[in-house]
Design a protein that fits this description.
This protein is α/β, with parallel strands linked by helices and 261 residues long. It has one domain: 2-enoyl-CoA Hydratase, Chain A, domain 1 (Alpha-Beta Complex), CATH 3.90.226.10. Helices cover 51% and strands 13% of the residues. The longest helix has 20 residues. The protein binds octanoyl-coenzyme A. The site of octanoyl-coenzyme A (CO8) has 28 residues, from helix 9 and helix 10.
Protein backbone atom coordinates (compact mmCIF):
# COMPACT_ATOMS: atom_id res chain seq x y z
CA UNK A 1 0.00 0.00 0.00
CA UNK A 2 1.01 3.53 -0.67
CA UNK A 3 1.63 5.30 2.60
CA UNK A 4 3.60 8.50 2.28
CA UNK A 5 4.18 10.78 -0.62
CA UNK A 6 7.19 12.88 0.15
CA UNK A 7 7.79 15.60 -2.38
CA UNK A 8 11.53 16.07 -2.65
CA UNK A 9 12.76 19.32 -1.32
CA UNK A 10 13.23 21.55 -4.28
CA UNK A 11 16.64 23.23 -4.34
CA UNK A 12 14.98 26.61 -4.84
CA UNK A 13 12.80 26.45 -1.73
CA UNK A 14 14.49 23.86 0.48
CA UNK A 15 11.08 22.74 1.67
CA UNK A 16 9.66 19.21 1.64
CA UNK A 17 6.01 18.34 2.08
CA UNK A 18 4.97 15.07 3.66
CA UNK A 19 1.55 14.12 2.31
CA UNK A 20 0.14 11.42 4.56
CA UNK A 21 -1.97 9.01 2.62
CA UNK A 22 -2.92 5.88 4.50
CA UNK A 23 -6.68 5.40 4.13
CA UNK A 24 -9.06 5.48 5.78
CA UNK A 25 -7.70 7.65 8.61
CA UNK A 26 -3.86 7.86 8.48
CA UNK A 27 -3.61 5.76 11.61
CA UNK A 28 -0.02 5.20 12.66
CA UNK A 29 0.75 1.53 12.10
CA UNK A 30 4.21 -0.01 12.45
CA UNK A 31 4.68 0.12 8.65
CA UNK A 32 3.50 3.71 8.45
CA UNK A 33 5.78 4.81 11.31
CA UNK A 34 8.76 3.00 9.80
CA UNK A 35 8.26 4.65 6.44
CA UNK A 36 7.78 8.03 8.07
CA UNK A 37 11.00 7.71 10.07
CA UNK A 38 13.02 6.69 7.03
CA UNK A 39 11.57 9.62 5.08
CA UNK A 40 12.35 12.15 7.80
CA UNK A 41 15.85 10.79 8.28
CA UNK A 42 16.58 11.18 4.57
CA UNK A 43 15.42 14.79 4.64
CA UNK A 44 17.43 15.44 7.80
CA UNK A 45 20.60 14.32 6.01
CA UNK A 46 19.78 16.34 2.88
CA UNK A 47 21.68 19.60 3.32
CA UNK A 48 19.40 21.27 0.79
CA UNK A 49 16.29 20.62 2.88
CA UNK A 50 15.58 23.14 5.64
CA UNK A 51 11.85 22.87 6.13
CA UNK A 52 9.21 20.16 6.40
CA UNK A 53 5.45 20.59 6.14
CA UNK A 54 3.30 17.68 7.33
CA UNK A 55 -0.21 17.36 5.97
CA UNK A 56 -2.84 14.83 4.93
CA UNK A 57 -4.20 14.15 1.47
CA UNK A 58 -7.14 12.06 2.68
CA UNK A 59 -10.63 12.96 1.67
CA UNK A 60 -12.91 13.14 3.67
CA UNK A 61 -10.41 14.91 5.78
CA UNK A 62 -8.59 13.37 8.70
CA UNK A 63 -5.09 14.60 9.57
CA UNK A 64 -4.30 11.43 11.54
CA UNK A 65 -6.42 9.23 13.81
CA UNK A 66 -3.35 8.60 15.96
CA UNK A 67 -1.82 5.27 16.80
CA UNK A 68 -3.33 2.35 14.96
CA UNK A 69 -5.49 0.68 17.59
CA UNK A 70 -5.18 -2.64 15.75
CA UNK A 71 -1.42 -2.57 16.51
CA UNK A 72 -2.26 -2.54 20.21
CA UNK A 73 -5.05 -5.12 20.22
CA UNK A 74 -4.46 -8.88 20.42
CA UNK A 75 -0.76 -8.61 19.58
CA UNK A 76 2.16 -10.44 21.19
CA UNK A 77 4.29 -8.57 23.75
CA UNK A 78 7.24 -8.70 21.30
CA UNK A 79 5.22 -7.10 18.55
CA UNK A 80 3.82 -4.45 20.94
CA UNK A 81 7.37 -3.63 21.99
CA UNK A 82 8.47 -3.25 18.39
CA UNK A 83 5.51 -1.01 17.69
CA UNK A 84 6.20 1.20 20.70
CA UNK A 85 9.84 1.58 19.73
CA UNK A 86 8.67 2.93 16.37
CA UNK A 87 6.32 5.40 18.08
CA UNK A 88 9.22 6.64 20.22
CA UNK A 89 11.43 6.89 17.13
CA UNK A 90 8.85 9.00 15.28
CA UNK A 91 8.61 11.41 18.21
CA UNK A 92 12.38 11.61 18.76
CA UNK A 93 13.01 12.30 15.05
CA UNK A 94 10.29 14.92 14.66
CA UNK A 95 10.56 16.70 18.02
CA UNK A 96 14.35 16.74 17.68
CA UNK A 97 14.45 17.71 14.02
CA UNK A 98 16.89 20.39 12.90
CA UNK A 99 14.48 21.38 10.15
CA UNK A 100 11.73 23.93 10.63
CA UNK A 101 8.58 21.82 10.83
CA UNK A 102 5.03 23.00 10.28
CA UNK A 103 1.86 20.96 10.74
CA UNK A 104 -0.81 21.80 8.16
CA UNK A 105 -3.71 20.23 10.05
CA UNK A 106 -6.45 19.78 7.49
CA UNK A 107 -8.66 17.40 9.46
CA UNK A 108 -9.20 15.77 12.83
CA UNK A 109 -6.11 15.01 14.81
CA UNK A 110 -6.77 12.97 17.96
CA UNK A 111 -4.22 11.30 20.25
CA UNK A 112 -1.08 10.27 18.34
CA UNK A 113 -2.17 12.59 15.51
CA UNK A 114 -2.15 15.47 17.97
CA UNK A 115 1.24 14.32 19.27
CA UNK A 116 2.62 14.38 15.75
CA UNK A 117 1.45 17.95 15.21
CA UNK A 118 2.79 18.95 18.64
CA UNK A 119 6.28 17.93 17.52
CA UNK A 120 6.20 20.68 14.89
CA UNK A 121 7.44 24.24 15.37
CA UNK A 122 4.14 25.75 14.21
CA UNK A 123 0.58 24.47 13.77
CA UNK A 124 -1.95 25.77 11.25
CA UNK A 125 -5.41 24.21 11.42
CA UNK A 126 -8.44 24.26 9.13
CA UNK A 127 -11.17 26.39 10.66
CA UNK A 128 -13.86 23.75 10.41
CA UNK A 129 -15.87 22.94 13.55
CA UNK A 130 -16.28 19.35 12.39
CA UNK A 131 -12.60 18.78 13.19
CA UNK A 132 -11.05 18.30 16.59
CA UNK A 133 -7.61 17.90 18.09
CA UNK A 134 -6.31 16.74 21.46
CA UNK A 135 -4.78 14.00 23.55
CA UNK A 136 -7.90 11.93 24.28
CA UNK A 137 -6.13 8.77 25.53
CA UNK A 138 -7.88 8.90 28.92
CA UNK A 139 -11.20 8.48 27.10
CA UNK A 140 -9.95 5.13 25.81
CA UNK A 141 -8.97 4.07 29.33
CA UNK A 142 -5.29 4.47 28.57
CA UNK A 143 -2.74 6.84 30.04
CA UNK A 144 -0.83 9.26 27.84
CA UNK A 145 2.88 8.46 28.38
CA UNK A 146 5.09 11.03 30.14
CA UNK A 147 6.62 12.28 26.92
CA UNK A 148 3.19 12.90 25.34
CA UNK A 149 2.38 14.86 28.50
CA UNK A 150 5.69 16.74 28.42
CA UNK A 151 5.20 17.76 24.79
CA UNK A 152 1.73 19.06 25.67
CA UNK A 153 3.00 20.97 28.73
CA UNK A 154 5.72 22.56 26.59
CA UNK A 155 3.02 23.78 24.21
CA UNK A 156 -0.01 24.80 26.30
CA UNK A 157 1.33 24.95 29.87
CA UNK A 158 0.71 22.92 32.99
CA UNK A 159 -2.87 23.90 33.83
CA UNK A 160 -4.24 23.43 30.32
CA UNK A 161 -2.48 20.07 30.11
CA UNK A 162 -3.92 18.96 33.42
CA UNK A 163 -7.45 19.66 32.21
CA UNK A 164 -6.82 18.28 28.74
CA UNK A 165 -5.28 15.01 29.90
CA UNK A 166 -7.44 14.16 32.90
CA UNK A 167 -10.59 14.71 30.86
CA UNK A 168 -9.15 13.39 27.58
CA UNK A 169 -10.41 16.54 25.86
CA UNK A 170 -10.75 16.95 22.12
CA UNK A 171 -10.83 20.63 21.15
CA UNK A 172 -12.68 22.27 18.28
CA UNK A 173 -10.36 24.54 16.26
CA UNK A 174 -11.49 27.76 18.00
CA UNK A 175 -10.88 26.25 21.47
CA UNK A 176 -7.56 24.79 20.36
CA UNK A 177 -6.45 28.24 19.21
CA UNK A 178 -7.54 29.78 22.52
CA UNK A 179 -5.30 27.53 24.62
CA UNK A 180 -2.42 27.66 22.12
CA UNK A 181 -2.73 24.05 21.02
CA UNK A 182 -2.67 25.42 17.47
CA UNK A 183 -1.12 28.72 16.39
CA UNK A 184 -3.41 29.79 13.58
CA UNK A 185 -6.77 28.94 11.99
CA UNK A 186 -7.34 29.42 8.30
CA UNK A 187 -10.10 28.50 5.82
CA UNK A 188 -9.89 24.85 4.92
CA UNK A 189 -8.71 25.35 1.34
CA UNK A 190 -5.84 27.59 2.43
CA UNK A 191 -4.11 25.42 5.01
CA UNK A 192 -1.25 24.28 2.81
CA UNK A 193 -0.79 27.66 1.11
CA UNK A 194 -0.54 29.47 4.46
CA UNK A 195 1.83 26.80 5.76
CA UNK A 196 4.05 27.40 2.74
CA UNK A 197 4.02 31.18 3.27
CA UNK A 198 4.76 30.76 6.96
CA UNK A 199 7.65 28.45 6.16
CA UNK A 200 9.17 31.11 3.88
CA UNK A 201 9.18 33.53 6.83
CA UNK A 202 10.75 31.00 9.20
CA UNK A 203 13.48 30.25 6.66
CA UNK A 204 14.65 33.87 6.67
CA UNK A 205 15.86 33.46 10.28
CA UNK A 206 19.59 32.70 10.58
CA UNK A 207 19.63 28.90 10.43
CA UNK A 208 22.29 28.06 12.99
CA UNK A 209 20.91 30.36 15.69
CA UNK A 210 17.39 29.02 15.20
CA UNK A 211 18.51 25.40 15.38
CA UNK A 212 20.51 25.89 18.56
CA UNK A 213 17.60 27.75 20.11
CA UNK A 214 15.17 24.96 19.19
CA UNK A 215 17.52 22.38 20.64
CA UNK A 216 17.97 24.41 23.83
CA UNK A 217 14.20 24.52 24.30
CA UNK A 218 13.58 20.83 23.57
CA UNK A 219 16.69 18.93 24.67
CA UNK A 220 15.70 18.29 28.31
CA UNK A 221 12.37 16.80 27.17
CA UNK A 222 14.06 14.68 24.48
CA UNK A 223 16.79 13.49 26.87
CA UNK A 224 14.19 12.30 29.36
CA UNK A 225 12.89 9.73 26.87
CA UNK A 226 16.34 9.00 25.35
CA UNK A 227 17.62 7.86 28.72
CA UNK A 228 14.46 5.86 29.53
CA UNK A 229 13.55 4.20 26.26
CA UNK A 230 13.78 0.59 27.35
CA UNK A 231 11.84 1.14 30.57
CA UNK A 232 9.20 3.08 28.64
CA UNK A 233 8.82 0.16 26.20
CA UNK A 234 8.48 -2.34 29.06
CA UNK A 235 5.95 -0.08 30.72
CA UNK A 236 3.89 0.20 27.54
CA UNK A 237 3.97 -3.55 26.86
CA UNK A 238 2.90 -4.55 30.35
CA UNK A 239 0.15 -1.91 30.37
CA UNK A 240 -1.29 -2.54 26.92
CA UNK A 241 -1.33 -6.35 27.24
CA UNK A 242 -3.40 -6.26 30.47
CA UNK A 243 -6.81 -7.94 30.06
CA UNK A 244 -8.62 -4.85 31.32
CA UNK A 245 -6.87 -2.57 28.81
CA UNK A 246 -7.46 -5.00 25.95
CA UNK A 247 -11.12 -4.98 26.91
CA UNK A 248 -11.24 -1.17 26.89
CA UNK A 249 -9.64 -1.09 23.46
CA UNK A 250 -12.14 -3.63 22.12
CA UNK A 251 -15.06 -1.63 23.45
CA UNK A 252 -13.62 1.55 21.96
CA UNK A 253 -13.25 -0.07 18.53
CA UNK A 254 -16.83 -1.31 18.72
CA UNK A 255 -17.95 2.18 19.67
CA UNK A 256 -16.17 3.59 16.58
CA UNK A 257 -17.98 1.07 14.39
CA UNK A 258 -21.38 1.73 16.00
CA UNK A 259 -20.98 5.47 15.59
CA UNK A 260 -20.71 4.76 11.88
CA UNK A 261 -23.82 2.50 11.75
N1 LIG B 1 -6.71 2.91 14.66
C1 LIG B 1 -7.25 1.98 13.85
N2 LIG B 1 -8.38 2.14 13.16
C2 LIG B 1 -9.02 3.32 13.29
C3 LIG B 1 -8.53 4.34 14.13
C4 LIG B 1 -7.33 4.11 14.84
N3 LIG B 1 -6.78 5.01 15.63
N4 LIG B 1 -9.40 5.38 14.06
C5 LIG B 1 -10.38 5.03 13.21
N5 LIG B 1 -10.16 3.77 12.75
C6 LIG B 1 -10.99 3.03 11.78
C7 LIG B 1 -12.44 2.93 12.23
O1 LIG B 1 -12.62 1.86 13.13
C8 LIG B 1 -13.15 2.72 10.92
O2 LIG B 1 -12.97 1.37 10.54
P1 LIG B 1 -14.09 0.59 9.68
O3 LIG B 1 -14.19 1.33 8.38
O4 LIG B 1 -13.55 -0.79 9.56
O5 LIG B 1 -15.35 0.65 10.50
C9 LIG B 1 -12.34 3.58 9.95
O6 LIG B 1 -11.07 3.77 10.57
C10 LIG B 1 -12.96 4.96 9.70
O7 LIG B 1 -13.22 5.58 10.95
P2 LIG B 1 -14.48 6.54 11.19
O8 LIG B 1 -15.68 5.98 10.52
O9 LIG B 1 -14.57 6.79 12.66
O10 LIG B 1 -14.00 7.85 10.38
P3 LIG B 1 -14.50 9.34 10.59
O11 LIG B 1 -13.99 10.09 9.40
O12 LIG B 1 -15.93 9.40 10.94
O13 LIG B 1 -13.71 9.86 11.90
C11 LIG B 1 -11.80 10.08 13.33
C12 LIG B 1 -12.33 9.98 11.88
C13 LIG B 1 -12.27 11.37 13.96
C14 LIG B 1 -10.27 10.05 13.26
C15 LIG B 1 -12.33 8.88 14.14
O14 LIG B 1 -12.09 7.69 13.42
C16 LIG B 1 -11.73 8.71 15.50
O15 LIG B 1 -12.05 9.45 16.42
N6 LIG B 1 -10.84 7.70 15.66
C17 LIG B 1 -10.26 7.34 16.93
C18 LIG B 1 -9.12 8.22 17.25
C19 LIG B 1 -8.49 7.82 18.55
O16 LIG B 1 -9.08 7.88 19.60
N7 LIG B 1 -7.23 7.39 18.46
C20 LIG B 1 -6.52 7.02 19.63
C21 LIG B 1 -5.43 6.08 19.30
S1 LIG B 1 -4.43 5.81 20.75
C22 LIG B 1 -3.10 6.86 20.57
O17 LIG B 1 -2.91 7.45 19.55
C23 LIG B 1 -2.12 7.03 21.72
C24 LIG B 1 -2.04 5.83 22.57
C25 LIG B 1 -0.97 5.90 23.65
C26 LIG B 1 -0.87 4.58 24.38
C27 LIG B 1 -0.13 4.68 25.65
C28 LIG B 1 -0.32 3.47 26.56
C29 LIG B 1 0.65 3.43 27.73
Amino acid sequence: TFILKMSNSSPSTGVAVMHMQSPPVNSLSLDFLTELCIGVEKLEMDKGCRGLIITSVLSPKVFSAGLDILEMYGKSPERCGEFWKAVQEMWLKLYGSNMTTIAAINGSSPAGGCLMSLTCDYRIMADNPRYSIGLNETQLGIVAPFWFKDTMVNTVGHRNTELALQLGLLYKPAEALKIGLVDQLVPEDQVLAVATQTMTKWLTIPEHARQITKSMMRKPTLDKLRSNREADIQNFVSFITKDSIQKSLRMYMEMLKQKKA
